[in-house]
Amino acid sequence: MAFSKKDINSIWERQIKLGKLSHAYLFVDPKKQNFNFVLDLLSKLVEDKIEDYHFFYLIQEENGKKNILVDQLRTLQEEFQTTSSDLKIALIKNAELLNEQASNSILKFIEEPAENQMIFLYANSVANILPTINSRVQQIILPELSVDELVDEYSEFGLDPKYTYLLAQVAANKEIANELQNDAWFFNVATKVEQWIEMLQNKNHDAFIFVEGILMKYLKTPLQQTTFPLIALNLLEQKSIENVNLLNIFVEELDKSKFNINMQTTLEKIAIRSFIS
After folding, report:
1. pLDDT digits (tens, 9 = 90+) for 90-130
2. What secondary structure does DSSP assign to 174-207, as a single string?
3. CATH superfamily assigned to domain 5-141
């Protein structure tokens, strides 16, 4: 059964009051939308902002690394081996990236809990966590946020409401949204796509050279290349009656691009097909 964040918060507060929290939890968040909510829950344990708590340990993959390594847990092990009257809290972010050695190291913590120590894992899927860990932690499945909830989160970027809504449609979580916002990339590419779509609608042949001359300059990273089609499709769908033929062309060519056809070729084909349709 899936619970809302309001329900989870109420149950969490009640369990704290009754002193019935477990020593180990796995927060499952498929789209990684609720990390700040998890931090808020942990803050209730210490009645302070958890990031400022002196016995809070956040573990995640290091820059450029694809896994969380056992070496990263050694400091944590040393800290947790010492006794203290203060509550010690460890949070492993992106726990699905724990390698086998690191997972086994965490398992020892979970199997042999010490007093005043709690460990929390935050992952995108139960399937990506060792079964021996899954069987020893309490699981909390976090709800997927609606587009409207994401709009509320992304409003802090200060975009026009139209573009805030568009960002909520293409960025599944705050981390992705932040990356897309670097150097105003999202706003700039969205306005360029709108310009390109208008050229396609008017069968303006400059739309072809616009691909290489303008659009490709914005498609440097893998995230940008995967987000661009989503931006274009969502902008087209907003006026689906006017753009039904163009929308069909987009969908067909983007579907073909899954077979390793590069993005520039795909966009140029869309332009050519729009001229002759």
Report:
1. 999 999 999 888 888 888 888 887 888 999 999 999 999 99
2. HHHHHHHHGGGHHHHHHHHHHHHHHHHHTT-THH
3. P-loop containing nucleotide triphosphate hydrolases (3.40.50.300)
